[in-house]
């Protein structure tokens, strides 16, 4: 029997490898249509992939394939320039930049460039209004008003009721504002099953009730994967809800936690099954929403896959997973394809614990906004790499980096903690970070108005200075940003206590109350406790916060 099983698995492996090889060969023979687009003099280009933000505007770029690359984040077949030109395709393409030209290769069509006005904003508005217009919807207002807390760094794969409650109590006891608490991977019995592990969660409903009593909304990490050789796997396979390969059997997908089957996210019945299952969890346990992980295009870019929708591409699986999240007010995504201006929370991909990673946050957030992903969060404060926070020696640990990372988050649309600041910071630095969380809440009326405006107009919340002040030479500014139309933020993204700040035209009031004339460069002292930001002063300054946000449906949970 053992020999027969061994022979069977060897045979199936060889068969799968042969089918995959033939599929790849056929794919390579498919004609690619090439377009070369020379850049105009002094033209700057953005787009394609959120995670390429720090390389934007592009001067050179190795070939990037939108069908099987996403660099751990959102992608879209879209490029825009500060001279009003744009590129759009409904299909993934390969793009590269060299010799002052953009090169496009598509297996679906010949992709061209179009003109829409003369500025970066003109180009964005032109492509957005045609291809992903706003629908006046947005995620729940608590995402914008209060910090988020994710259990990943502190608990990793040991998610359990006792430690989750302790984490939440420490948040409150240390004076941080409660908000959204996300329980990360490994709370469930196995993938595809949506029951809590009994050995780790003695009473999950009571746990969620306690978290609600402390002022938190509760979200659970989920993925589209299904553990093979499980009751759910067998039932879902029988119902035809799993993605299949060329043999007609459920495909086994390689992902970061191993090998699993996967829901066919192009099958409406699979999405309906998932929605029904998730809503039952909300009913049974009081869960408020879900963190939808694992939608990366790279998992689904296999020639041997046979999705429910004939001819569906890798990115169609990505998009189907994101469409599911639109059915829930509390959601979070990291990987998406062309879901601009949909009511989805987008998070930057996991960053390492380094100054280089801190410097990537602003350009990546700008990039996300220019792809239509305005409702975005700049990863976790300090980065999402848990290994960086194990066995910390307080004398050697760079606490300044954590503080400055928190300050970059503070006046973004959202801020998210994972590593516990009270575990890794001195009392003095903990107080600074706590004040940053409180500042975010204090500024939440303006932040939420920016979110409402973005839902209405489709414009980004986080903006490059070039977007707001065209043709002033600001295209390469990557350590400042505009938050909406009114607020400019200039955090420290390097070690130190001083920096130069570009003041665009106009009059500006800084965080210390001093008024500045714009259209110049200044140098300011920035002690560790300070986050520099500047409010735009208009000749007839109007009251900014004129709405009673509690009356708006998206902000019914916001206590401001």
Describe this structure as you would to a colleague:
Helix 10 (355-370) packs parallel to helix 11 and helix 11 runs parallel beside helix 13. This protein has 15 helices and 29 strands. 49% of the residues are buried. The strands form 8 sheets. The protein has a 6-stranded parallel β-sheet with strand order 18-16-11-10-9-21. Strands 22-23-24-29-26-27 form a 6-stranded antiparallel β-sheet. The chain has a 4-stranded antiparallel β-sheet with strand order 1-7-6-3, with no helix packed on it. It is of the alpha+beta class. The protein starts with a helix and ends in a 23-residue tail after the last strand.
Compact overview of the structure:
By secondary structure, the protein is α+β, with helices and mostly antiparallel strands. The chain contains 15 helices and 29 strands. Strands 18-16-11-10-9-21 form a 6-stranded parallel β-sheet. The protein has a 6-stranded antiparallel β-sheet with strand order 22-23-24-29-26-27. A 4-stranded antiparallel β-sheet has the order 1-7-6-3, with no helix packed on it.
The general outline is: globular
Quaternary form? single chain
Distance between the termini: 68 Å
The helix content is 25-40%
User: In terms of per-residue confidence, which ranges show pLDDT below 50 for 5 or more consecutive residues?
Assistant: 1-29, 542-560
Q: Percent of residues in beta strands?
A: 15-25%
Number of strands: 29
Class from helix and strand fractions: alpha+beta
Averaged pLDDT: 92
């Amino acid at each position: 029997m053992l020999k027969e099983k061994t022979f069977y698995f060897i045979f199936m492996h060889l068969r799968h490898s042969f089918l995959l090889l033939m599929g790849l060969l056929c794919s390579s023979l498919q004609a690619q249509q090439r377009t070369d687009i020379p850049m105009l003099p002094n033209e700057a280009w953005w787009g394609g992939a959120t995670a390429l933000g720090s390389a934007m505007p592009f001067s050179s770029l190795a070939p990037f394939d939108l069908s099987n690359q996403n660099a751990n984040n959102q992608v879209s077949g879209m490029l825009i320039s500060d001279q009003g030109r744009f590129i759009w395709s409904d299909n993934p393409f390969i793009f590269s930049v060299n010799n002052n030209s953009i090169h496009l290769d598509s297996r679906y069509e010949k992709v061209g460039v179009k003109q829409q006005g003369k500025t970066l904003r003109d180009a964005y508005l032109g492509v957005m209004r045609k291809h992903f217009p706003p629908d006046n919807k947005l995620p729940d207002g608590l995402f914008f008003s209060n910090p988020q807390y994710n259990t990943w760094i502190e608990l990793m794969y040991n998610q359990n009721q006792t430690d989750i409650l302790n984490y939440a109590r420490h948040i409150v006891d240390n004076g941080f504002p409660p908000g959204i608490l996300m329980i990360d991977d490994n709370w469930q019995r196995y993938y595809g099953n949506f029951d809590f592990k009994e050995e780790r969660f003695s009473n999950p409903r009571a746990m969620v009730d306690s978290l609600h009593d402390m002022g938190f909304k509760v979200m659970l990490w989920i993925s589209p994967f299904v553990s093979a050789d499980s009751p759910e796997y067998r039932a879902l396979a029988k119902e035809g809800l799993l993605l299949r390969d060329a043999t007609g059997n459920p495909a086994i997908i390689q992902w970061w936690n191993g090998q699993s089957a996967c829901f066919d996210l192009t099958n409406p019945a699979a999405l309906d099954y998932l929605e029904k299952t998730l809503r039952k969890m909300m009913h049974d346990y009081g869960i408020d929403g879900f963190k939808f992980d694992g939608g990366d295009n790279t998992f689904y870019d296999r020639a041997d896959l046979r999705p429910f929708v004939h001819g569906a591409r890798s990115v169609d699986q990505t998009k189907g997973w994101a469409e599911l999240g639109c059915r829930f007010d509390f959601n979070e995504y990291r990987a998406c394809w062309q879901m601009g201006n949909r009511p989805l929370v987008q998070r930057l991909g996991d960053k390492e614990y380094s100054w280089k990673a801190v410097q990537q946050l602003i350009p990546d957030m700008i990039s996300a906004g220019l792809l239509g992903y305005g409702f975005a969060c700049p990863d976790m404060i300090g980065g999402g790499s848990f290994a960086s926070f194990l066995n910390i020696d307080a004398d050697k640990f760079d606490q300044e980096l954590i503080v400055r990372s928190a300050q970059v988050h503070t006046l973004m649309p959202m801020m998210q903690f994972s590593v516990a600041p009270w575990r890794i910071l001195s009392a003095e630095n903990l107080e600074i970070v706590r004040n940053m969380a409180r500042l975010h809440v204090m500024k939440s009326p303006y932040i939420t108005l920016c979110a409402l405006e973005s839902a209405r107009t489709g414009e980004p919340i986080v903006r490059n200075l070039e977007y707001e002040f065209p043709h002033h030479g600001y295209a390469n500014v990557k350590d400042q940003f505009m938050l909406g139309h009114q607020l400019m933020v200039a955090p420290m993204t390097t070690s130190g206590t001083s920096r130069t700040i570009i003041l665009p035209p106009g009059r500006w009031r800084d965080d210390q109350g001093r008024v500045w004339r714009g259209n110049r460069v200044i140098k300011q002292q920035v002690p560790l406790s300070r986050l520099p930001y500047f409010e735009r002063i208009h000749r007839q300054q109007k009251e900014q916060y004129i709405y009673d946000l509690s009356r708006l449906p998206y902000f019914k949970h916001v206590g401001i």
